[in-house]
Amino acid sequence: MHLTQDAVTNLDQRFRAHLINSLSGFKSANLIGTQDTEGNTNLAIVSSVFHLGAHPPLIGMIIRPHSVARHTFENILEAGCYTINQVNTEIVPQAHQTSARYEKHESEFNATGLTAEYLAGFSAPFVAESRLKYSVRLREHQHLAINGTELVIGEILDLHIEDKALQEDGFIDLEAINTVAISGLDSYHSTQKLTRLPYAKKT
Amino acid sequence: MHLTQDAVTNLDQRFRAHLINSLSGFKSANLIGTQDTEGNTNLAIVSSVFHLGAHPPLIGMIIRPHSVARHTFENILEAGCYTINQVNTEIVPQAHQTSARYEKHESEFNATGLTAEYLAGFSAPFVAESRLKYSVRLREHQHLAINGTELVIGEILDLHIEDKALQEDGFIDLEAINTVAISGLDSYHSTQKLTRLPYAKKT
User: Fold this and answer.
1) What is the model's pLDDT at position A68?
2) Which of B108, B103, B121, B101 minimizes the C-alpha distance to B32?
3) CB neighbourhood size of B41 (10 A)
4) Predicted model pTM
5) Cβ–Cβ of B199/A180 closer than 8 Å?
6) Interchain proximity A187–B196, CB inside 8 Å
7) ipTM of the complex
8) Is residue A200 assigned to a domain?
9) What are the C-alpha distances in Å from A174 to residues A167, B43, B170, B179, B191?
10) Number of domains into which chain A is organized
11) From the CA of B181, how many Å to the nearest CA of chain A?
């Protein structure tokens, strides 16, 4: 099937949102934990977290500042720190429910039943049920004028990982901790390993 | 297991690369097709393609301009256009092999056996074996001084999708076309659908 740009432009807005959100392929599923200076906690599922670099360890994400993620963005700017918690198969419904439009004083932890925990003296809350999580310090944010989104770049600080997932070469077996992937706006997937391939060389 | 920032900093560089690349969760697997003005084609696997927005349809990716993806970045700047082709289970080894360090005059299409095809008059090559692909026009690129990477933002033009994958509401069933996910630097995964969840509302 060939859909021209004009045809896509003329699609119903909701149909188009599902379609375009499917094009990038599988996405990461992460919960962003934040807290404002008054101690109000917030938790938001984000499918746009991406690896930015390992030297230094940096992580990026795209936030729509006027969406349901607005409190997350405000808290990150206010506190300068946040946590990233991978979503696993056991907490998919609760993780998804964080995308409902709660008020700022309503904590998604309370609303969804996920458990806030504080680790290693870090001021933003982690998700106790997540099996791979890390603390992050805001390094910079850039307004992307092209569509009003914000690119948020953070420095990875401390890692909290279930022992059994970490392999000898540093690779983390995400399947051992049931990490899920997202496709489109609302589809959740478990995975099955096909292969690990060696560093590619010219033959 | 708790790994402090200092502990991570002191890890062996290769170990750290595997570790940090695992933290974001599952990544998309896409082949970027480009062509310079002399007609040299290039194909590069990229795990950093991400959804940026549906209105207008925009797609982002992170490129390390001095890495093996340098020709891809040069061609995008030169030609202003590229294709994005989802990787499926049938072409994982060939897709991975595009990450070897070929010279600019060596086409990864020839080197890997993937087939270049030209669709709907678009000047950059598609991957015939890919079952979901689209043409993209460069809109902007930003140098991220924090680690020397480039954020490349493109406008999604025409879509080429296998009919059977497109569902009634616009959602694309990526499993119907065997799209794979990546974890870490080198691990490839098929997926199994867990659930699609309705738009979340406060209860």
Assistant:
1) 85
2) B108
3) 18
4) 0.97
5) no
6) yes
7) 0.97
8) no
9) 11, 28, 29, 18, 13
10) 1
11) 6
